[in-house]
Design brief:
The chain is of the alpha/beta class and about 240 residues long. About 40% of the residues lie in helices and about 10% in strands. α1 packs across α2 and α7 packs across α9. It starts with a helix and ends in a 39-residue tail after the last helix. The C terminus is likely disordered.
């Protein structure tokens, strides 16, 4: 394991303060998982975060996770039941941004929620879970491929608001040009979705939580992300069907 820890540590840019582990892939075994935890311990001034569907592995080693490492369980795997059973902070992928909004999930368009501490999410959004939208290349003719262009415009609207652009069609065109998007192509026909994203950014960053949390305190007899934060974490689970 020492060799893996050294390999990870040597590959880290020490000037970077926030590190996402795995752009693709997952923790595939206990030694690999522990190697990342030890690498994080060697770099206490850096913050590490990751997504995982290896929930059993995560739970087995939960007491070995250092304070500068945040793990988000990913819904959609074989261990979803464990995510709910232990009230683990999680991400959920949606095909449609409308469905995510309907269920009250804050939408993460730049991983800023993913590396936010769970109790900070709870205070700001009323939940410590968040949504990710399907985007990028999808299978031809699939529902996801049909929704991708809507999601892309929506996410760009959120990005534009964060960058200080207004919510008008002219501002969308200006933003698209700044991002080297086509000025006359499909994106200019997606203003409705773009404006929805622009409005959603404002909603998520208002003083009122996106999702009201009326749940009773969680069962603190079960292990959580970080033991010292048990008392501050609450959860409202939705029984809505998966998308």
């Amino acid at each position: 394991m020492k060799g893996v820890v050294k390999l990870i540590d040597d590959s880290l840019n020490k000037d970077i303060k926030i590190v996402r582990v795995h752009v693709g892939g997952d923790f595939f075994g206990p030694e690999y998982f522990e190697a990342w935890m030890k690498a994080a311990e060697l770099n206490p001034d850096m913050k590490f975060y990751a997504y995982t569907k290896s929930v059993k592995l995560y739970m087995k080693h939960i007491n070995k996770i250092p304070n500068n490492f945040l793990i988000n369980a990913s819904m959609g795997g074989v261990d979803d039941k464990l995510i709910k059973e232990h009230n683990l902070p999680h991400s959920r992928i949606f095909v449609s941004y409308g469905r995510a909004i309907e269920l009250g999930y804050p939408i993460d368009f730049d991983d800023s929620i993913a590396h936010m501490e769970p109790e900070d999410r709870l205070e700001k959004y009323g939940t410590y879970d968040f949504a990710l939208l399907v985007h990028g290349t999808q299978g031809k003719g699939s529902l996801a491929s049909k929704e991708t262009r809507h999601n892309t415009a929506f996410l760009n609207g959120m990005k534009a608001h964060k960058k200080g652009y207004g919510g008008s069609l002219q501002q969308m065109i200006k933003f698209n040009a700044s991002q080297k998007y086509s000025k006359s192509g499909r994106m200019n026909k997606m203003y409705e979705d773009w404006k929805e994203g622009w409005d959603q950014y404002a909603t998520q960053n208002s003083t009122k939580p996106v999702k009201e949390n009326k749940a009773s305190p969680i069962d603190t007899s079960k292990p959580l992300l970080k033991k010292k934060k048990k008392a501050s974490l609450e959860k409202k689970w939705s029984d809505a069907p998966k998308v």
